[in-house]
């Protein structure tokens, strides 16, 4: 069984409190918020009503977590955003959608553009 990481964050601010490790094992079971808050010391003492959890797919955003200088969950959208290193490095972090998602979106746009160009070329040559 493959269980992806869970991102626990403060609802009011988006601050990430803890990210559970992803697990690949036949002897584990999926846990819920109450289980995790009772098990992980990093989550103990927090009011469950003030904390939310974002469940990620197994290996989702692994590269983003490795490359990012920071991350948070946007309280308005409930989506994780990352800050990446910038040249100069002294600027305030600028949070954005995961690069993994941005690349996927650009590939989809490119495929759509190429298909449209091929269709246009096909109609102009016939």
Tags for this entry?
single chain, 126 residues, alpha+beta, three-stranded antiparallel beta sheet, two-stranded antiparallel sheet, 3 helices, 7 strands, 32% helix, elongated
Short précis:
The protein has 126 residues and is an alpha+beta fold. The protein contains 3 helices and 7 strands, in the order ββββαβαββα. The chain has helices at residues 33-39, 62-67, 99-125; strands spanning 2-3, 6-10, 16-19, 23-24, 51-55, 70-73, 80-83.
Can you describe this structure?
With 126 residues, the chain is an alpha+beta fold. It has one domain. The chain has 3 helices and 7 strands. It has helices spanning 33-39, 62-67, 99-125, and strands at 2-3, 6-10, 16-19, 23-24, 51-55, 70-73, 80-83. Strands 3-2-5 form a 3-stranded antiparallel beta sheet, with no helix packed on it. Strands 1-4 form a two-stranded antiparallel ribbon. Strands 6-7 form a two-stranded antiparallel ribbon. The protein is elongated. The mean pLDDT is 89.
User: What topology, given as strand order, has the largest sheet?
Assistant: 3-2-5
Instruction: Please compute the radius of gyration using only Cα atoms.
Output: 20 Å
The helix content, as a percent range, equals 25-40%
Low confidence ranges: none
Q: What count of structural domains?
A: 1
The chain-level structural class is alpha+beta
Helical segment count: 3
Strand content: 15-25%
Largest sheet: 3 strands, antiparallel
Order of helices and strands: EEEEHEHEEH
Count of β-strands: 7
The pLDDT mean sits at 89
The separation of the N and C termini measures: 53 Å
- Overall form: elongated
